[in-house]
Amino acid sequence: QVQLVESGGGLVQPGGSLRLCCAASRSIFGISVMGWYRQAPGKQRELVADITNGGSTNYADSVKGRFSISRDNVKITMCLQMNNLRPEDTAVYYCNYRAANNIINYWGQGTQVTVSS
After folding, report:
1. What would the pLDDT profile of 36-83 be if each residue is shown by its tens digit?
2. What is the mean pLDDT of residues 1-5?
3. CA-wise closest residue to 76 among 97, 59, 47
4. According to the model, what pLDDT value does residue 69 have?
5. C-beta of residue 20 within 8 angstroms of C-beta of residue 8
6. Which partner from 4, 30, 39, 61 sits 20 to 30 angstroms from 106, CA to CA?
7. pLDDT-based confidence at 100, cuts 50/70/90?
């Protein structure tokens, strides 16, 4: 079992920045993907961004140019730098850590991000 600990959520004004980080208790063998998903009230959970242990990244169109994901394979941590935040970015953000073949898949407990004036 892998435990994921998230940090960095909170309340920010539109145009502001937040940094979310996720730390895993141990690594997954082989090719793995760490990412952030979000779920707003009444909406389905959606991918925000993810990154492989090789450094390949993937972003939702809505966050391209504003968010940046990074990963430290030694420390088994992953962070999401979120800039120019918008009210529509408000959601619970979940850390995800999975094997590339999806056989192993872990979720964090979620952290609230609220963008409001």
Report:
1. 999 999 999 999 999 999 999 999 999 999 999 999 999 999 999 999
2. 94
3. 97
4. 98
5. yes
6. 61
7. confident
Which residues, including other chains, have CB under 8 Å from residue 9's CB and lie 6 or more apart? 18, 20, 93, 111, 112, 113
What pLDDT band is residue 101 in, cutting at 50, 70 and 90? confident
Burial of 9 (0-12, 13-18, 19+ CB in 10 A): middle
Secondary structure string (H, E, C) spanning 38-102 = EECCCCCCEEEEEEECCCCEEECHHHCCCEEEEEECCCCEEEEEECCCCHHHCEEEEEEEEECCC
Specify the amino acid at residue 11: L
Residue type, 109: Q
Contacting residues for 102 by C-beta, under 8 A, at least 6 apart: none
Sign of CA dihedral 105, 108, 109, 112: negative
Q: Which pLDDT score is estimated for 102?
A: 81
